[in-house]
Design brief:
By secondary structure, the protein is of the alpha/beta class. The chain has helices at 14-25, 32-36, 46-57, 72-78, 89-102, 121-128, 130-133, 135-143, 157-174, and strands at residues 3-8, 29-31, 37-38, 42-43, 62-65, 81-85, 150-154. The longest helix is centred in the C-terminal third of the chain and has 18 residues, at 157-174.
Length: 175
């Protein structure tokens, strides 16, 4: 595993999971939100964003976490491993509410420093409707991937913990 793509609903735990996996495997972690959002929540222009992703995806080793469905196919093409955190809706809602409180007036570690935590109605609705509108599209894309790519769909905190434990065990066994 050298190019790992981690996707899932907001609040599914992508950023935390990416950091843990990056530490275990000694791979650089790229949180897409940190690069997409410029100060004061201004989005990166499309051409600049696509060029950034091409440059990153072409590197030999990485963990990229984030959604951005418009560029998902590009990242899927380069990834050798895809991990979909397919967490329950209520867990994701709980986590986005919790981080809104935890980082009130501050910036999360996975965001650009000039983007203080926020939560508005449209974002809340997107997370609420993720399983209904986006999840099935993601699963269909994963089913169409080259069979040589490793795909993991983790559906609970227990499965995430087991995955991390297995990675740690495999890493220790090799060393």
């Amino acid at each position: 595993m050298n190019r790992i793509l981690i996707i899932g609903s907001p609040g599914s735990g992508k950023s935390t999971f990416s950091q843990v996996v990056g530490d275990i495997l000694s791979l650089p972690v790229i949180h897409l939100d940190r690069y997409y959002w410029k100060p004061n929540w201004v989005s990166t222009p499309k051409e600049e964003w696509e060029q950034f992703l091409m440059d990153i995806a072409g590197q030999d080793q990485w963990i990229i976490d984030g959604n951005y469905n418009g560029t998902l196919d590009l990242r899927l093409r380069y990834a050798d491993t895809v991990i979909f955190l397919d967490m329950p809706r209520l867990l994701c809602i709980y986590r986005i509410l919790k981080r809104r409180i935890q980082y009130h007036g501050k910036t999360r570690p996975d965001l650009n420093e000039a983007c203080p935590e926020r939560l508005d109605g449209s974002f809340f609705r997107w997370v609420w409707n993720y399983n209904k509108h986006t999840r099935q599209q993601v699963l269909q894309r994963l089913e169409q991937l080259d069979p040589n790519k490793r795909v993991f769909v983790l559906k609970s905190r227990r499965e995430v913990s087991a995955f991390i434990d297995q990675l740690t065990y495999d890493r220790e066994k090799r060393n």
